[in-house]
Amino acid sequence: MNNRWRWLIIGCYASSLPFLRGVWNLLTEGGSATGSAVPIAIGAVFCAVLVSYIVGVKREKRLSVYSAFVLFILVCTRIFLSIREPIERVHLAEYALLSMMVFWAMSDGTEGWGLCIWAVVVTMELGLADELIQGILPERIYDFNDVLLNAKAAVVGQGMVAFVLRPWEASGRGLGAGGPRSEGSCAYKLWWAFAIVVLLAALNVYIVERGTPTIAADVLKGTGELRYRDGYRFWNSSVACVNGILSSVSLAILLSARSSTAKGARALRAAVVCGLLSPLILLVGWFSGAHFR
């Protein structure tokens, strides 16, 4: 399948994540027992699909692979049990799957674990963009704890790719660094573009956190303080200009380096594009007068 089609599938999947609360409400109308059972059922299906791939498709016989699979299931279970809210537990499966899809979109089947690192980075960027959208949506709130949880899920997903699924073995490669290497002037341009989006992400998270300090949603709703959260409280024309100018510079660099075909360039381009989503979301919300909570 063409990589553009793969990214289109990821775009459809990722753009649906902020709106899954409605689906969750429908599934949990039966009460708290149903709410506790849904994440378990989703996790069980996810594990069953992975096992069917390992056993049925790869016909894996190495004990080390199954040991790694059990280890990552234990890690997921530990993270799962540390989360109080059932709906937050669904984030594990959502973002572990998203990170695997990102790897699939960036890969040509020959890369090693080096591409897994980039898949984690891109998934973290998509997770941040998802959370920023929720800050703008009515009846939803931004929570940096969810960003961290999404990052954990991305790491778990890529651990599964690197040590269990190992898709590059189909091409005869072992567990090597592979992929994210690029050379020439295009590589330097893309690294500069990536550095800019990382800087913007750090700046915007800092500003948003000042106006919407990370507090548990149930506490906020119980105290009535939810309406006082305002992620744009410390935003002004200067911040908007910085975001607009640096985003434009990063995009211009990205377009000027579009001729690079190295594997590393593919990963860097994906990281830059997904990193630009966050400042774009914040700019659109700010100019439209949205209330960021």
Descriptive tags:
12 helices, globular, mainly alpha, 293 residues
Written overview of the protein:
It is a single chain. This protein starts with a helix and ends in a 6-residue tail after the last helix. It has one domain (about 5-285). It is globular. Helix 3 packs parallel to helix 5 (about 85-105), helix 6 packs parallel to helix 11 (about 265-275) and helix 8 packs antiparallel against helix 10. By secondary structure, it is mostly helical. Helix content is about 70%, strand content about 0%. It is built from twelve helices and no strands. Mean pLDDT is about 80; it is low at about 175-185 and about 215-220.
Determine the structural class based on helices, strands and strand pairing.
mainly alpha
Order of helices and strands: HHHHHHHHHHHH
Number of domains: 1
Strand content: under 5%
Number of helices: 12
Radius of gyration: 20 Å
Helical proportion, percent range: over 70%
Amino- and carboxy-terminal Cα gap? 39 Å
- Total strand segments: 0
- Inertia-based shape: globular
**Nearest-integer average pLDDT:** 81
Major beta sheet summary: none
- Low-confidence spans: 174-183, 216-220
